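Q: My labmate handed me this sequence with no annotations at all. I'd like to see what the chain might look like in three dimensions before we decide whether it's worth expressing. Could you predict it?
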Amino acid sequence: MADAHPAKPAAAAAEKIDERRKLELQNTLNRISIIAGIFDTRMGSVNCKPFHAIRELMDIYIAGAIRALSKGQDYLDNGIELKDEERASVETLILKIYGDVAKKDASSDKA
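A: Here is what I predict for the chain of 111 residues:
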């Protein structure tokens, strides 16, 4: 599965961001984390496993953004790099949220 945002060339991704942009990205990350926390609080009363998987996707994105920012990389413009286990989790979570679309398409073709 590809990253949410296509990565720019390696040279562009390796460029360090200036302190002003880093502060802006940190503030954005803080707001994202607050929204994720509110989502977590509100979803507690919802008995829907696919909905809970959305929160897990948020955690993966936030972790990747934190890693990128700690390396001085712009996670908004360049996307995030997923670790192998995160990539596998994302694929599993997408299936949990949307189901196996290929399987559904195959069964509707037979009908």
